[in-house]
């Protein structure tokens, strides 16, 4: 049985992020939705501070800057993260308004999910999680497009389509229109990429000999 980390760290979150002022943010609503899909009993808590009769959802450091804290519990494993309250320019603020506090809490929730594995690779500066399954579109020699999922399937589709190319020009065209899929394959599994490249080269040699005859 896979651990929480093994399960969540393999999810590709790239379609659910946004870039703002040089930082990448994961949609908190989507992140929590994925967590609950895999672990229905997962819970989160927005931590409160202050006296019993005046609790507020942020704390203040000695310099006056505000921080929020969120705790996410999945399968009995608890992760707590702290995040500064920022303004629209990503600068730390004191005496934050309710919108700034709420935004920081939602971002802190997403970061907490990352500490459980979901989208952790974003904070590590990587493009895709290890073992992630990625969908790509492959176009065959006739111009028909097919969406496939997983690099092994991408490689198999290429190996199937390459023999269908009847001329060198068609073969080169097929390779050219599938540059993105080829790039994904090369980045994800160099061994499979080399196998496809070998098939392409072999087919090209056969076609060139036929055209020269």
Please write out the topology:
Layout: H1 4-8, E1 17-20, E2 23-26, H2 28-38, E3 43-46, E4 59-60, E5 66-74, E6 77-84, H3 98-115, H4 120-123, E7 135-139, E8 145-149, H5 151-161, H6 168-177, H7 179-188, H8 190-212
Antiparallel strand pairs: 1-2, 3-5, 4-5, 5-6, 7-8
Helix pairs in contact: 2-3, 5-7, 5-8, 7-8
How would you explain this protein's 3D organization?
By secondary structure, the chain is an alpha+beta fold. About 45% of the residues lie in helices and about 20% in strands. It has 2 domains: about 5-125, Enolase-like, domain 1; about 135-210, no CATH class. The chain contains 8 helices and 8 strands. The strands form 3 sheets. Strands 3, 4, 5 and 6 form a 4-stranded antiparallel β-sheet that branches. Strands 1-2 form a two-stranded antiparallel sheet. β7 and β8 form a beta hairpin. It is elongated.
Brief overview:
The protein has 213 residues and is of the alpha+beta class. It contains eight helices and eight strands.
Question: What key phrases describe this protein's structure?
Answer:
elongated, 213 residues, Enolase-like, domain 1, 4-stranded antiparallel sheet, 2 domains, alpha+beta, 43% helix
Q: Mean pLDDT across all residues, rounded?
A: 85
Radius of gyration, taken over Cα atoms and rounded to an integer in Å: 24 Å
> What is the CATH class of the largest domain?
Alpha Beta
Number of strands: 8
Largest sheet: 4 strands, antiparallel
Looking at the structure, the CATH topology of the largest domain is: Enolase-like, domain 1
Kindly, what is the distance between the CA atoms of the first and last residues, rounded to a whole number of angstroms?
59 Å
Structural class of the helices, strands and pairings? alpha+beta
- Name the beta content range: 15-25%
Question: Any idea how many domains?
Answer: 2
Contiguous uncertain segments of 5+ residues:
none
Query: What is the H-and-E element order?
Result: HEEHEEEEHHEEHHHH
Q: Overall 3D geometry?
A: elongated
- The number of helices is 8
Q: Per CATH, which architecture of the largest domain?
A: 2-Layer Sandwich
Percent range of helical residues = 40-55%
């Amino acid at each position: 049985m896979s651990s929480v980390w093994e399960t969540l760290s393999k999810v590709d979150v790239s379609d659910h992020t946004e870039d703002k002022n040089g930082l990448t943010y994961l949609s908190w609503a989507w992140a929590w939705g994925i967590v609950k899909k895999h672990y229905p009993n997962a819970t989160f808590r927005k931590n409160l501070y202050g006296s019993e009769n005046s609790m507020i959802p942020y704390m203040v450091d000695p310099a006056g800057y505000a921080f929020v804290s969120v705790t996410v519990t999945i399968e009995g494993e608890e992760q707590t993260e702290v995040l500064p309250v920022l303004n629209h320019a990503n600068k730390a603020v004191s005496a934050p308004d309710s919108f700034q506090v709420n935004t920081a809490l939602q971002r802190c929730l997403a970061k907490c999910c990352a500490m459980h594995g979901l989208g952790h690779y974003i904070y590590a500066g990587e493009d895709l999680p290890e073992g992630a399954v990625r969908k790509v579109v492959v176009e065959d020699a006739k111009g028909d497009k097919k969406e496939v999922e997983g690099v092994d399937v991408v490689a198999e589709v290429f190996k199937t389509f390459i023999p269908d190319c009847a001329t060198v020009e068609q073969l080169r065209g097929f390779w050219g229109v599938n540059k993105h899929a080829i790039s994904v394959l090369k980045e994800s599994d160099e061994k499979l990429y080399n196998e496809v490249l070998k098939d392409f080269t072999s087919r090209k040699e056969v076609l060139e000999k036929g055209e020269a005859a």
